[in-house]
Structures are given as C-alpha cells and as structure tokens.
Specification:
alpha+beta
C-alpha cells in the first residue's frame, strides 16, 4: 500500500466516529496547551524578575548592614559581637577602592508631602548626586541633586513622575516649595517614568540629600550602600576591596553582607528556570493521560473493525501494512491534537499578557517543541499495542466475527 493510500485510509478511519475522535483530539490538545501555558507563566515570571533586578543599574555591588551566613550559632559571638550600622563615613571610605567608580549611600523612609492644600504619603530616599547614575535613572525636567558635601545637603528634592502628575497637574513643579515631613524643600527635578526597582517605585519617590533624610528620620544609619564597579570585570574586585575597607573600619569584624547583582541574577535564573521545568513536567503528565486515552480508543477501534481488518488481510494486506495503518491513524490524531493544543496554549499565553501586561508570558521555543514532540511520541507509542494486536488477527477468524 502506497503512503498516500495509507494516510487516506487512516484518515477515513479516524473520521468514522466523530465524537470519539473529537474527544481524543481534545485530550491531546489540553495536554499540549497546559505545557505551553505553564511554561509561558514560569518563563515569564523568570524574565520579569530578572528585568526588574537588572533595571536597578549595572555592575552593582550592594552593601547591607548585618551579616548573613550559615556557619551555625556561636554563643561567644552572641555576647561579644555587636553589628555596627552603616554610616555615611563608611560609604565615603569605599571611594578609595580602585575598582569602584561610584558610591551612593541610601536611607529610606516614609513621610508626607504637602503643597497647595494637597497631601499624600510618599517614600523618601536620601542619597547623593551619584544616585542617579548608579541607579541609571532619567530626568524628565530640571536637574538632580547637586554635587557637594554629603553631610551638608541643601533643602532640595527630586520627585517621581506620579507625584508630579498628582500634585502639580497643569503646572510646573520646578522651583516650587513643598513640605516633606517637617522640612520645607524646593523641587529642582522630576524623574522620568521608570516604575519599580530595588523594592521601590521611583514614580512615587521623593529624593533628598542624605544629610537631610537623616535629620528628617533622626537616624545616622544607612539602609544600603550602592557601589558601581568600574566595569563588569571589576565587580568581584570591587566586592573584595569593599569587604576589606568595611572590615578595617569595623575593627576587623565583617558585620555586613555584600551581594553582587550578577550573583543575585544567576540565583533567580536558576531557581525560576527549575520552576519552569517543574511546571512543564507536571503539565506533561496530562500528555501521558492523553496517550493512555489514545491506546484505549485504538483498542476499541480494533475490536469494532475486526471484520474490516480480516477483509484487508484476505485481500492480501500484510501484518506490517495493518500495523502501519493503525500507527498512522494514532500519529494523525496526535498531530492534530498537538497543533490544536499549540493554538490554545498561545491564546492562553496572550490572555495572560493582556490581563497582566507587566508579565512577559511568552512560551519558550524549547517548551513548544517539547510539547509537540511529546504529544507525537506519546500518541505513537501508545498506539503500538493496538496496532500489533490488529496486525496479529487471523483473517479467517476476523471475518467470522462479522
């Protein structure tokens, strides 16, 4: 039997029972669609997290107060070790490191901004002129904080885009005097819209000099120190040098945690990549279930078409031809189900992107190919047993069962 005749016969057999064929195709389609949608969710979450963390700047080393380690509990350390706060002097000392290009101290707090009878709560960030370059922020209007003594900043502020829209709609915010907490400051700049990054929404941020923020919150402690290395190849060197400088300033005790942007990105990439593979594996179980359904349907088909098989064998069809016919039927049903599932999966991913625009829920190519390949392999594999059973039928006995 020619290949064209083989597939024509298999197609006629597959469409002979529309309800049975439709249910089988639907089961296979659901399995493939589940793989596509779940991997799109997992990979979208991975890319969203990586993009968010990448948006905070480049070549970053972040210094956090307190030591994070897994070395166990030492009673002696509990008595003698007192973690020190990060200070502006610590941040300035880091400028001595040869691998460091910029340093931006950071203090964070919440307060209220009021102007012209309008009042709203905002997040206040105290930093220096270097903050805009370290964080790679852009200005929509005006200028950023001036370069000068970190301990004596002028009463000036830069506000986020949303604050500008809500409090100064239709007017220019530049040069306006506003009250932030109990301090009066003059607005000198407006940030361009950037959104979230480093745990804060810069569109709702008020940036003031670090000295002013410390006085506002009555604290000399820094929330973070942001270090920009002189290049990607200098990130580790900057981390090592910053560690040594902090240890010298803290009497030989390393009571801070230094993390690099690349290390955090790599960790998130591994974790969320494993999560994507995990959900893909869970979704693939539905393909195995669909494969079992293929086998059941094909076994029923063999029982219903016993006389037909006997007639084909009586006309000279070999066992290999009968086997190929049933395998072709299983492959065709699996392929149609897989393609339908692919369309449903892409439609589901598009719906997710429509409902959650910030989530880049695009199914990865490997998941699409794996879903299609698994569906075909599963369908054919589970079609082998029915095909072998059909090929093994005796033509005389098969015809007698008419």
């Amino acid at each position: 039997m020619r290949a064209s005749d083989l597939f024509h016969f298999a197609g006629r057999a597959a469409t002979g029972n529309a309800l049975r064929t439709g249910l089988l195709i639907l089961a296979m389609a659901i399995g493939v669609a589940a793989v596509v949608v779940l991997t799109a969710l997992g990979d979208g979450a991975r890319r969203y997290v990586l993009n968010q963390f990448s948006s905070i700047g480049s070549n970053l080393v972040i210094v956090l107060p307190g030591r994070s380690q897994t070395g166990g509990f030492n009673p002696g350390n509990a008595i003698t070790s007192t973690p020190r706060d990060l200070t502006v002097d610590d941040a300035q000392a880091l400028l001595r490191a040869s691998a460091v290009r910029r340093v931006a101290p950071l203090i964070i707090g919440t307060s209220e901004i009021s102007v012209g009878g309008k009042l709203r709560e905002v997040m206040v960030a105290g930093s220096t002129a270097e903050f805009i370059d370290v964080r790679q922020l852009k200005l929509a209007q005006g200028r950023f904080l001036p370069v000068g003594d970190w301990r004596r900043g002028p009463p000036e502020a830069v506000i986020g885009a949303r604050i500008n829209d809500e409090l100064f709609a239709g007017t220019s915010a530049l040069g306006q005097l506003v009250r932030v907490g109990d301090r009066r400051v003059r607005i000198v700049g407006v940030l361009a819209t950037t959104g979230h990054g480093l745990g804060m929404n810069t569109d709702e941020l008020v940036i003031v000099p670090v000295s002013l923020a410390q006085a506002m919150f009555n604290s000399n402690t820094l929330f973070r120190i942001l270090i920009e290395a002189s290049g990607r190849e200098a990130i580790e060197a900057a981390k090592v040098q910053a560690t040594e400088i902090i240890k010298l300033r803290h009497e030989g005790e390393l009571d801070v945690t230094l993390i690099t942007q690349d290390a955090v990105l790599a960790t998130f990439d591994r974790l969320l990549g494993a999560l994507t593979l995990g959900v893909a594996g869970i979704a693939a179980i539905s393909l195995a279930v669909a494969g079992i359904l293929v086998m059941n349907v094909m076994l029923v088909s063999v029982a219903q078409r016993t006389a037909e098989i006997g007639l084909l064998k009586a006309l000279g069809a070999s066992g290999a031809t009968i086997r190929q016919t049933f395998l072709a039927e299983a492959a065709m049903l699996s392929l149609v189900g897989a393609l339908l599932g692919l369309l449903l999966g892409h439609a589901g991913a598009a719906l997710i992107r429509h409902l959650f625009p910030v989530l880049p829920a695009f199914p990865p190519l490997w998941a699409v190919l794996a879903g299609l390949g698994t569906a075909l392999v599963t369908g054919v594999l589970f079609g082998v047993l029915p095909a072998r059973r059909a090929a093994a039928l005796d033509p005389v006995l098969a015809l007698a069962r008419r």
